[in-house]
Amino acid sequence: MAFDPLPEHHFTFGLWTVGNIGRDPFGNPTRQPLAPEYIVHKLSELGAYGVNLHDNDLVPIDATASERDAIVSSFKKALVESGMKVPMATTNLFSDAAFKDGAFTNANAQIRAYAIQKAMNSMDLGAELGAETYVFWGGREGAEVDAGGNALDAIAHMREAFNFLASYSQEQGYNYRFALEPKPNEPRGDIYLPVVGAALGFIATLEQPHLFGVNPEFAHETMAGLNFVHAIAQAIDAGKLFHIDLNDQKMGRFDQDLRFGAENIKSAFLLVKLLEDTGYAGMKHFDAHALRTEDEAGVWDFARGCMRTYLMLKEKAAQFNADAEIQAIIAAYKVKDESLSSLSKSYSTSNAAALKAHSFDRAALGARGPGLERLDQLTVDLLLGMR
Ligand code: GLT
Ligand code: MN
Ligand code: MN
Q1: Residues classed as catalytic
Q2: Could you say which of 72, 103, 107, 281 is the most buried, measured as most Cβ atoms within 10 Å of its Cβ?
């Protein structure tokens, strides 16, 4: 099997991902910048569906209006020539010094207003390029010092900004779906809305919650030692998985943004299986970058590898679902009892009375092993190509 990516697989990369120049806090760039038009053509050749961007990945923050228009028209030409789409856009609210203590949540009202202005301009750009999903990653929306008392205000300011921008989107006819991307820390000591569950809880407090979902990133829950597959399950259950950022990460380390599947292969497998089994129809965005050690050839190896690993894991998921022994173990694991389920599924006075009157064999319930060791070993066998 070739595992060749095709546009129908809806794989996307950010301009900032394959365009990453290999800079880190201790070291200078190790690669030359790549022109956005070149990136678009290369990704299209590799079988990607589209490319995503921040406003300033394409248009420098200090560009004049005419410079902006020239840059955008050259980029649009590359999109038309290559057939590539821009499904998602976002705003850079973290690189400029003005945002060093946050953007929408900054304690300074002037910076908050500037952040909203910048986001509106960036939403205009995204809409012009055809983007339907708008991501908010609150990279600088956080703190090292809480003595300023901003933690509670920040949530209210963030709510104001999202309510404002959702109305702007509707009035302009953009009809974006907004996807909040949680991260626990880095570049701030602590970032507000650190995990998927926090973002889901916050969305319920917005004026138009139906317009908002999440854009979870594999590395972000993993950095904090949390289970990304569980986070995605909760987002799917809530109908809020609008977008996903795929990459990899060792737990408890600096933000590594590794190639998808590079590190936690079993979790990556279970994630792909969950997305495929539940018919996730959104974009699969690889928000990662080639190692700083690599030259340009390594960048394209990285991009090919992300897509190839996803497709191999998708194949493994199909094999898992068709494996009679594995499915028999799962069927036995999920013990069914129609009559007890009918009592416990929903409350009624009579169900409560019948349940209270039922006699359970507690010792037998505690004695039974669910077969998870065998199931997990078969999963490992399957992933290692032994089944
Ligand atoms: C940045 C970050 C990502 C976000 C991007 C969107 S930019 O690279 O590390 O997780 O998805 O702003
Ligand atoms: Mn990240
Ligand atoms: Mn991301």
Answers
A1: 54, 57
A2: 103
